[in-house]
Each structure stands twice: as C-alpha cells, then as structure tokens.
Write a structure and sequence with these properties.
By secondary structure, the protein is mainly beta. The chain is built from one helix and seven strands; from the N terminus they run ββββββαβ.
C-alpha cells in the first residue's frame, strides 16, 4: 500500500505515521509526523529541510493498526535511506 511519509533532509530518515495517535520523529528529531490515515500533521524545526514522499509499505491498514496497538513495531520504525 502507498502511504504518505516525509523525508528529513538533514539525517535522511523517512518517517510515517501508522494511525491517528502514532507520532514519530526522525533520528535527529528535526522532523515529526502524526495522524496516520486520518490527517497528516508535520512538525519541523526548519520546513525547508522536509520533503513529502510516498512510500510502499507491504501491509494493510488493519496490520498497521495492530502493529501500533500491540507495540510490535514491525512497520512503524524509521526507515533510513542512505
């Protein structure tokens, strides 16, 4: 499934929110994202250092919710692009 994500142009991490209450920071804590599929709220120290991207995640909405709710974090961790 394609989902909205953001890339931190400082540390190179791509982050996304799995559900409404899943707030995530990139590794350097310059960029955060929240809202899951309900809305997309992006927080950034410097908005010019953020790029919106779409990524492919091999999971359904239900799997992403269960992953967040159970704390398993199979899908919710930061994806670093070198």
């Amino acid at each position: 499934m394609r989902i909205k994500a953001v890339k931190c142009l400082i540390c190179g991490d791509i982050i996304y929110s799995r559900v409404r209450w899943d707030f995530r920071y990139c590794g350097c804590k310059s960029v955060g994202i929240d809202g899951g599929f309900d809305y997309c709220k992006i927080s950034a120290k410097d908005p010019s250092k953020v790029k919106s991207v779409d990524i492919e995640v091999n999971a359904t909405k239900e799997e992403l919710y269960r992953d967040w709710h159970s704390g398993e974090n199979k899908y919710g961790l930061i994806k670093k692009i070198k």
